[in-house]
Design goal:
- With 470 residues, this protein is α+β, with helices and mostly antiparallel strands.
- Helix content is 45%, strand content 9%.
- The strands form 4 sheets. A 5-stranded mixed β-sheet has the order 1-2-8-5-3. Strands 4-12-9 form a 3-stranded antiparallel β-sheet. It has a two-stranded antiparallel ribbon with strand order 6-7.
- Helix 5 packs antiparallel against helix 10 and helix 10 packs across helix 12.
- The longest helix has 31 residues.
Length: 470
């Protein structure tokens, strides 16, 4: 469909591959220039030049390798345990196996978990939102900043505005969103500056002669990024501006993507009590205690995997499309010639609800992802079509580099939560769904509502919680 004067939106797996796959005859458009302009350079996810992106990605890959993921697991597990401890605290101890009657805004709590987790993984130092109030402004500021940058990118005079982003002039822009955007940028940059200073101390740049180098307990993401070298020049692979841009990207995309997936799983699961019962039974049957929740056994729970994938299908971290501009000479998408200069994209929300691919596309059906041992050819073909259309973290060479970290963070949080607690909708009402007073397209009470400002932002759910009987 045409969604702008020179913009087309597609919804098929073939279009997904033609637009985002390897060797696609497209490039990122100027809209991406705005998103990281306050850092003075693009993040790895926003860089437009494909060769530069490949080099940046290659330099970042050690930070997201299987080995790095294994090193990160104990930290993620500790954060999941702290999440449950915070939930118990919010319930006034709430360990008496009864419904407390107190409501919990799960979106807010999961945001604390997401930001604490990603900030610690990235910088070796958590924002500690689960512990105290000091940095709890961060989720709200990031949301406001995302709204501002999203719309600025589409302004016809955006090239005139970009040089002002991240400077003191931005404080003069009208509206709180612009001020929050600058506040968030300064926070991210300050966290990076602190991490660079710690790295200098560790590598001995400022140690006195003969002083022993302190043994490093854990290699966070910026340990790898700060030590990456250009294979040709031998110089640091990333400039300070590029590191600042990647800082903002890691905090924003990692934190909110993890929180959104968990909240959507609970929201849709509350409408299907048998789903939550089955998920809880699988988790509780696999682990004797929360201390036992770890890989590889965590990766051997098919229904947990299915529930997470179904959550990501209905509530992808980036609901809309990631726009691309067709290069000169044009290209063919879905059997149609598209001329050069046309903006094209595939909305993750739309393709994930394609009724020709997903049966009962608007319903939460984790079983659609499960493989039966006696699966016939037709079922295999249907499942292959589903996988080809499933893109919560994008596809191709520019997909999300932190995908595996996000999956592990989601799995550990869900496993700990459902091992320890039972959930129900507060007062029998599903907060976070649509409503009759909302705009057209947002009136379905059973659909988890997302607002797409660069990444998806939800509202709720609000739940009642009780500790399980052991």
């Amino acid at each position: 469909m045409r969604d702008g004067p020179n913009s087309l939106s597609f919804q098929t797996a073939a279009a997904l591959k033609a637009i985002y796959g390897a060797n696609a005859h497209v490039k990122k458009g100027d809209w991406y220039l705005t998103l990281d302009m306050s850092a003075g350079a693009p993040s790895v996810q926003m860089v437009i030049d494909q060769q530069q992106h490949a080099l940046r990605r290659r330099a970042m890959s050690p930070a997201f390798s299987e080995r790095a993921l294994g090193d990160a697991e104990p930290l993620i597990k500790a954060k999941a345990a702290k999440l449950c401890a915070k939930l118990a605290e919010m319930l006034d101890g709430g360990e008496d196996n009864t419904w407390s009657g107190r409501s919990v805004d799960l979106a807010r709590l999961m945001a604390y978990y997401g930001y604490d987790l990603i900030s610690d993984l990235a910088f070796g130092r958590s924002f500690e939102l689960l512990d105290h109030e000091r940095h709890r402004f961060v989720p709200g500021v990031l949301k406001s900043a995302s709204v501002f940058l999203y719309y600025v990118g589409y302004l016809p005079f955006a090239p005139l505005v970009r040089p002002l982003l991240g400077t003191a002039v931005q404080d003069l822009f009208p509206g709180q969103a612009a001020k929050d955007s600058l506040r968030y940028t300064r926070l991210a940059n300050s966290r990076l500056a602190e991490r660079i200073e710690r790295e200098r101390t560790r590598t001995g740049e400022e140690r006195e002669e003969g002083e022993e180098e302190e043994e490093e307990e854990r290699k966070d993401i910026f340990h790898h990024l700060l030590r990456s070298k250009d294979p040709v020049t031998g110089k640091p692979a990333f400039s300070t501006e590029e590191l600042q841009a990647d800082t903002s990207l890691l905090i924003a995309a990692g934190s909110d993507g993890v929180a959104l997936a968990i909240c959507a799983l609970v929201f849709y699961g509350l409408q299907e009590p048998e789903v939550l019962g089955r998920l809880s039974a699988e988790i509780r049957g696999a682990f004797a205690s929360p201390d036992d929740i770890r890989t590889p056994k965590l990766h051997q729970l098919p229904y947990l995997d299915a529930c997470i994938d179904e959550s990501l299908r209905l509530a992808p971290p980036k609901p809309g499309s990631l726009p691309r501009v067709v290069l000169p000479g044009g290209t063919t998408i879905d059997g149609r010639f598209v001329p050069g200069g046309t903006t094209v994209g595939v909305s993750h929300y739309v393709i994930h609800r394609d009724g020709d691919v997903f049966e009962r596309p608007h319903e939460f059906v984790p079983d659609r992802w499960l493989v039966a041992s006696e699966e016939e050819g037709e079922d295999r073909e249907r499942r292959a079509r589903q996988r080809a259309s499933f893109c919560p973290f994008g596809i191709g060479p520019m997909n999300c580099i932190g995908k595996n970290v996000a999956y592990l963070a989601i799995k550990l949080a869900v496993a700990h939560l459902f091992w320890r607690y039972d959930f129900r909708a507060n007062g029998g009402r599903l907060v976070g769904g649509g409503g009759g007073a909302m705009e057209e397209g947002r009136r379905d009470e059973k659909e988890y509502q997302l607002w797409d400002w660069i990444i998806g932002f939800p509202n709720g759910p609000v739940v009642d919680v009780k500790a399980r009987k052991i």
